[in-house]
Amino acid sequence: MTNGDAMRMILACWRLLPLLMLCCQLIGCDADAPKAIRMGEQAPAFTASDLHGKPVSLADHTGKPVILRFFVPDCKYCRADTVVFNDYYTRYQEKGLGVVYINTEPKPGEVQKFADDLGIKFPVVLDPQRKVANQYRVQVVPQTVILDPGHRVVGVILGGVSKEQLDSLLLPFVQ
Question: What's this model's pTM, rounded to 2 decimal places?
């Protein structure tokens, strides 16, 4: 490659730079893109139907800490750490802890099998149109949102969840 060829390539890149910057700005700075839920933010109220058609509402847990778990039945993390949520619920439900699993796919048969296979005792709600998920700005599952007794967000966990993570976020509210 000659010096002249190198200069032409550099000039071509400089000419494309404004177009590249415009594309990045349009993709990355969408004013309508949902913003992530923030710590300390008041949790949006919701009501959704559980697997038996019974309404489940955040208001059912007024004054109590709540774990909201957004999931899909074929998620390996969702299946693997449900034992953690089951144990936590069993241990702290008498102290007011609420747990609600929120399915974000329209597969009620698979969700029922998931709940039965894993022995889930807390409410499992169906959110096939993602109304609740959109209120909480959930883009990826699994996602767990931890609420204090005033229903302010004190934690958001993407992926699998451990007992230690729940302890660090919830023990002040359930002891």
Answer: 0.80
Q: Is 69 helix (H, G, I), strand (E, B) or coil?
A: strand
pLDDT at 98: 97
Q: Phi/psi at 102 (nearest 5 deg)?
A: -125, 110
The total number of residues shown for the chain amounts to 175
For residue 36, what is the DSSP state?
A: P
Q: Is the pLDDT of residue 20 over 70?
A: no
* Interatomic CA distance for residues 43 and 153, integer angstroms: 6
**Alpha helix positions (H), 36-162:** 76-92, 108-118, 131-135
Q: Assess whether pLDDT exceeds 50 at residue 111.
A: yes
pLDDT number for residue 108: 87
* Pairing verdict, β 47-49 and 55-57: antiparallel
**Non-local CB neighbours of 113 within 8 Å, separated by 6+ positions:** 73
- Give the C-alpha separation, 89 to 155, whole Å: 17
| Tokens found for residue 143 | 């996602």
Return the residue matching tokens 């913003």.
35
